């Protein structure tokens, strides 16, 4: 059990900060238990648990910074990690962008911890795997999937007294179900904070239905289509774009949010009027720690309102240089939507394509955030409000910036995680005009 | 899949301050002082730990046991323009024990370096194996390996990167950055990634193998902007990550090749400063280069580009675990199914020979023994265009009908269980003498691509799309000018069957990936891919320029 009680964590950090002879010291404990189970070909393949707690110490002499980490907490180890950080700081060149440690702040706790997740046992993980495999076996389908749960904590203290402690949990489940002949494939993903809200048996049915329904895929000509991206399919594209919501790269002229002639696009209409993003550390079921990576308090903040850019991230250094107020880095992203389910969006579609999952998304041109990637594990043609037949997968070349100027309708937002990680997002299913597919893929 | 290395992953270390400090996995380990990076563990200690583990496992009922005592050292130096943003030294030391008991695998690991702790870890691994045995549908079948006794090996480096003072590294990168800025760059990032894996492997087959593996990578990214139009372009460095020491950065003339378009590319030695200057100029030229007209072109691909196409469309689909379905949920399966191997599927034209190996000098994969004690080798995947082999490890060899493992098992840490990873996979040089200039002189309507760019491929490795760093139009046998906005789309078998010429071994060079991800939880490995310049006829090229209105 790698959650240190608050009193114990605070005592360690107080000792560490007291040991430092540097101008400034910042210490942080970060730890937890990470459990996983993996299955493929209807068999459990691997299962593991990793317990770890790491202490990171950053010290500064003037503008020279050193970082050291350790995972033992006896007095001699604490002394050693502080001296190592100090030694590295003395060897380091001055960092002209060094910012001093933050003064003590007040943080409002957020609901990031769920007892049911913290109580997961190896037997629970095995049950989730069995619940995924058994119905597939019974239906002549093949399951491959992965469940990972994390119960963690963070505690930090700096030499100016900025202090925080909080625990958190999360569960991520994905399952790919294939037909035995390899002609059909379906997928489901479910990311939750609370294990009590997760039911592998219900989730796997979605992947099973999509696997069976996708077996006789027909080829459509590549081109521009109305698409319905399920929230998980949209996550990879949206997450990629959000990497550019940084004031510095925009001000430096190397982002789609740079303004020709200089400056950034804060205040400008960049997306369609349906598009609004905000961040809120206390957002229900998607809460994140109430502080950012620098120990600044997070607060609810609009990012895009009705298509207009409201806020970009300013690091403390860049805010100071530009005469702006530094705001805490975002921990989650919430996109506004409506009340409709994906099924409702399908019913209101004359002709279009339903996309379950997107895959291997990479940047083609940063100038326009043109991304390429593929559909996967359940792509269907919609006609007259109904799913007509499965279609072969497509490669897309599309910019989320263009895509979010072509919004027809948004569904009910749900919590998702993209294939390659990233932060917690709450996204709606999106019906979009003129989404650009450039070639067919034979992959199932 | 090839990892995306976000710059903010590196920067997050600079803000270790507080809140969710996340050390990216590539930084895993304990930060240490620079002088600790040049030491090694006593081999007698390693042997005593291994013996403790193997004895305990055998006594607990294991029919097989291997023990890996690992010390993984990494140093990262990260700079932009005139600033050193970060210097990080990390160390991770511990012991991983893998066993077979009751026909099932079990694995456990500990960072406690005592015989008692390793013995307990071995007993834990046996307990896990016995628990797993209950659900097993078939027992593990290991291809045989003959023990080699006590042996040791070190990557044949000239200069251990870890011994080079930090000051010298900072001076090198600052020189690179200022050269780029003087040559017209608006922004430049340059980095050094240095890795030393000290790996001791012992098994109940009777092997005690001590290997000291070194790798180096010096990536760079130069950006130019035209503020008036809001247009910006970047050009990444043309180096390759290598299994070499710091001598790779000595800029020796013997490592340089000047291509027919005037671009300088690099083999076993890299001149980072020279490349930075070229990068700034070539990035500037991109701002005004004409946009490609989409259509079918004959592509001439430089090895600095082709490595990534080989990696995605040959290396990954010919991993046997992927073919069998073990990676179905994340990385995917493979179009190159077992029946295609039996039928000697025409993977490419008869000019195409693709081989796997763990032995090429200077390559990222080069080691004499893999992470399950199998002597490494070179073997064929595609011969005369036909599919003839996969990459398989000890417990997979029997599935392919092989008597022995191919020796491509790897774990990225003592704490990770070893599994099948891509060997170096390379395109054999052409047997008939052919220079790049001669190849280009025969192309009527083509595009010459240098450097790797955007990349994406589907989950069965059919449909792929690749960009590049530099594109040049070829008309009537001559290079005309630089062009922009090029990406090509392929279907893997059609692409390799469109290969009509391969330059000879004089042009053979390595490219590679320092962070190739696979598995859940994901492990990272480093792998090289060699080729000579090759020609592919009638490939579909798209124009990637868009307008945001």
Automatic annotation (TrEMBL), chain A:
BP term (GO), one: proteolysis
Domain Metalloprotease TldD/E N-terminal: 32-89
InterPro entries: Metalloprtase-TldD/E_C, Metalloprtase-TldD/E_cen_dom, Metalloprtase-TldD/E_N, TldD/PmbA_N, TldD/PmbA_sf
Segments forming domain Metalloprotease TldD/E central: 138-213
Gene3D superfamilies: PmbA/TldD superfamily
SUPFAM superfamilies: Putative modulator of DNA gyrase, PmbA/TldD
Entry GO MF terms: metallopeptidase activity
Alphabetical UniProt keywords: Hydrolase, Protease
Superkingdom of the source species: Bacteria
Occurrences of domain Metalloprotease TldD/E C-terminal (ranges): 222-438
Family to which this protein belongs: Belongs to the peptidase U62 family.
PANTHER family: CONSERVED PROTEIN, TLDD PROTEIN
Entry protein name: Putative Zn-dependent protease
Natural source organism: Brevundimonas lenta
């Amino acid at each position: 059990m790698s959650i240190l009680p608050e009193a114990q964590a605070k005592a360690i950090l107080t000792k560490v900060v007291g040991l430092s002879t540097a101008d400034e010291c910042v210490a942080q404990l970060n730890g937890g238990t990470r459990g996983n189970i993996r299955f493929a070909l209807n068999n459990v393949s691997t299962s593991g648990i990793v317990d770890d707690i790491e202490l990171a110490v950053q010290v500064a002499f003037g503008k020279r910074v050193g970082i050291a980490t350790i995972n033992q907490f006896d007095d001699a180890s604490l002394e050693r990690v502080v001296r190592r950080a100090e030694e590295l700081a003395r060897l380091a060149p001055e960092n002209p962008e060094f910012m001093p440690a933050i003064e003590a702040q007040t943080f409002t706790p957020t609901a990031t911890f769920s007892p049911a997740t913290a109580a997961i046992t190896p037997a629970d993980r095995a049950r989730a795997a069995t619940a995924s495999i058994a119905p597939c076996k019974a239906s002549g389908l093949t399951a491959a999937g992965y469940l990972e749960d994390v119960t963690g904590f963070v505690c930090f203290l700096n030499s100016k007294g900025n202090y925080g402690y909080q625990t958190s949990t999360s569960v991520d489940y994905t399952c790919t179900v294939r037909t035995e002949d390899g002609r059909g494939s379906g997928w489901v993903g479910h990311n939750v904070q609370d294990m009590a809200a997760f039911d592998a048996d219900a989730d796997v049915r979605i992947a099973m239905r999509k696997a069976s329904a996708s077996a006789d895929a027909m080829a459509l000509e590549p081109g521009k289509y109305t698409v319905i991206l399920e929230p998980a399919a949209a996550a990879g594209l949206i997450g990629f774009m959000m990497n550019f919501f940084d004031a510095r790269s925009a001000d430096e002229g190397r982002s789609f949010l740079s303004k020709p002639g200089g400056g950034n696009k804060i205040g400008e209409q960049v997306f369609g009027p349906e598009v609004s993003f905000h961040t809120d550390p206390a957002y229900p079921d998607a809460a994140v720690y109430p502080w950012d990576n620098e120990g600044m308090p997070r607060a609810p903040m609009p990012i895009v309102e009705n298509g207009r850019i409201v806020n970009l991230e300013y690091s403390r250094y860049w805010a100071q240089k530009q005469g702006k107020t530094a705001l805490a880095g975002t921990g989650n992203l919430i996109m506004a939507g409506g009340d409709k389910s994906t099924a409702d969006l399908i019913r209101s579609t004359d002709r279009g394509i339903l996309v379950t999952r997107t895959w291997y998304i990479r940047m083609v041109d940063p100038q326009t955030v043109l991304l390429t990637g593929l559909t996967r594990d359940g792509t269907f043609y919609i006609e007259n409000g109904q799913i007509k037949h499965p279609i072969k997968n497509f490669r897309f070349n599309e910019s989320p910036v263009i895509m979010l100027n072509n919004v027809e309708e948004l569904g009910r937002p749900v919590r998702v995680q993209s294939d390659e990680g990233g932060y917690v997002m709450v996204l709606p299913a999106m019906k979009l005009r003129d989404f650009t597919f450039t070639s067919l893929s034979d992959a199932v | 899949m090839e990892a995306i290395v976000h710059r903010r992953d590196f920067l997050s270390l600079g803000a270790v301050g507080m809140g969710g400090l996340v050390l990216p996995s590539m930084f895993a380990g304990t930060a240490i002082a620079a002088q600790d990076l040049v030491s090694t563990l006593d081999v007698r200690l390693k042997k005593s730990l291994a013996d403790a583990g193997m004895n305990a496992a055998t006594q607990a009922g294991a029919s097989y046991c291997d023990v890996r005592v690992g010390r993984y050292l990494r140093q990262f130096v990260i700079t932009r323009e005139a600033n050193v943003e970060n210097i990080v030294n990390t160390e991770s030391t511990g012991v991983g024990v893998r066993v077979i008991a009751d026909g099932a695998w079990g694995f456990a690991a500990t960072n406690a370096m005592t015989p008692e702790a390793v013995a307990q870890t071995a007993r834990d691994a046996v307990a896990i194996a016995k628990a797993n045995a209950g659900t097993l549908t078939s027992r593990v079948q290991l291809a045989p390996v003959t023990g080699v006794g006590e042996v040791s090996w070190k990557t044949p480096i000239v200069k251990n990167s870890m011994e080079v003072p930090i000051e010298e590294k900072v001076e090198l990168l600052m020189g690179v950055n200022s050269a780029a800025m003087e040559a017209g760059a608006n922004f430049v990032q340059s980095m050094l990634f240095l890795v030393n894996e000290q790996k001791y492997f012992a098994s109940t087959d009777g092997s005690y193998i001590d290997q000291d593996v070194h790798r180096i990578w010096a990536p760079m990214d130069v950006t130019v902007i035209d503020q008036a139009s809001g247009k910006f372009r970047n050009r990444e460095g043309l180096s390759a990550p290598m299994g070499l020491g710091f001598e790779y950065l000595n800029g020796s003339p013997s490592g340089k090749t000047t291509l027919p378009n005037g671009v300088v590319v690099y083999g076993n030695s890299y001149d980072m400063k020279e490349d930075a200057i070229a990068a700034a100029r070539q990035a500037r030229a991109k701002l005004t280069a004409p946009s490609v007209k989409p259509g079918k072109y004959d592509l001439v691909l430089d090895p600095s580009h082709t490595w990534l196409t080989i990696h995605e469309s040959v290396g990954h689909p010919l991993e046997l675990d992927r073919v069998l379905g073990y990676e179905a949920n994340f990385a995917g399966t493979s179009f190159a199914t077992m029946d295609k191997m039996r039928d000697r599927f025409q993977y490419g034209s008869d000019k195409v020979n693709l081989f796997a190996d763990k032995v090429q000098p200077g390559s990222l994969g080069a080691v004499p023994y893999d992470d399950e004690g199998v002597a490494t080798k070179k073997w064929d995947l595609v011969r005369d265009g036909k599919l003839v082999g996969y990459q398989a490890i000890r417990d997979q060899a029997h599935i392919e009908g092989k008597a022995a493992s191919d020796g491509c098992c790897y774990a990225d840490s003592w704490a990770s269980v070893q599994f099948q990873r891509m060997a170096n996979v390379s395109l054999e040089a052409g047997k008939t003498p052919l220079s790049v200039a001669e190849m280009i002189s025969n192309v009527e309507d083509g595009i010459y691509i240098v450097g790797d760019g955007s990349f994406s491929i589907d989950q069965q490795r059919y449909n792929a799309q690749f960009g590049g760093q530099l594109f040049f139009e070829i008309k009537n046998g001559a290079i005309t000018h630089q062009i922009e906005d090029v990406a090509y789309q392929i279907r893997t078998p059609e692409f390799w069957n469109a290969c009509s010429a391969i330059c000879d071994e004089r042009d053979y060079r390595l490219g590679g990936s320092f962070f190739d991800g696979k598995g859940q939880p994901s492990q990272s490995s480093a792998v090289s891919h060699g080729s000579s310049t090759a020609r592919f006829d009638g490939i579909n090229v798209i124009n990637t320029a868009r307008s945001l209105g």
